[in-house]
Structure of Exodeoxyribonuclease III:
Amino acid sequence: MKVATYNVNGINGRLELLLRWLSEARPDVVCLQELKAPDAKFPHRALERAGYGAVWHGQTSWNGVAILARDREPIETRRGLPGDAHDQQSRYIEAAIDGIIFGCLYLPNGNPAPGPKFNYKLRWFKRLQDYAAGLLDLELKTALIGDFNVMPTDLDVYNPERWADDALFRPEVRRAYANLVDQGWTDALRHLYPQQRLYTFWKYLRNAYARDAGLRIDHFLLSPQLTPDLKRAGIDRFVREWPHTSDHAPVWIDI
């Protein structure tokens, strides 16, 4: 099973690019982030014609997450992260596919830091930790997948000094990610490539992609029951080269 994550950065504005990548890469499961579309505007008919069933949690102009499954329908198991009844941001959806639980997430950016947005990010991270611990207690094959908006180590950022005070790299955020992993999750790409510089995001500014001035912020965290099934992983960097593309590249694993 090929499982991918892709921050599409506006699903309707980049639908043709998404469909092109789905046709070329043929992933079995896809977690999408930053839909930037309300539920009613999610292009499920076009995705159905491409062979994908879907569940989605949209939001007008911002956020939004979805899970696609090729030639089948995902079974939604949760919509929204628990822990704050007043949180209206669409950042988490979960589905069961072929006996595996897939949690698709779009963690807050948190900039500027310090400030209210950074505080919200840390609160969201704590809610994720609490919920993730409960998922591990189920002892099922489970994956938490998506745009975590954190570079866990110096290997995951092209210039650590430049990002030292950014909300994606501040010590509090890296510590929160490390605490999450320490519950028993495996960072799939880092597990397979422990010393390799890997990037999944390049800003649009200052010719970042051509200079390979990138960040690794899109991650797969696998439960102990799923980790032994991990075979391969990769980044479809070529998609980042397409005209009008997202600033993220699709990332995938084979299980």
Remarks:
- Residues 2-254 form a domain with the Deoxyribonuclease I; Chain A fold (CATH 3.60.10.10).
- The CA atoms of residues 142 and 179 lie 18 Å apart.
- The first strand starts at residue 2 and ends at 7.
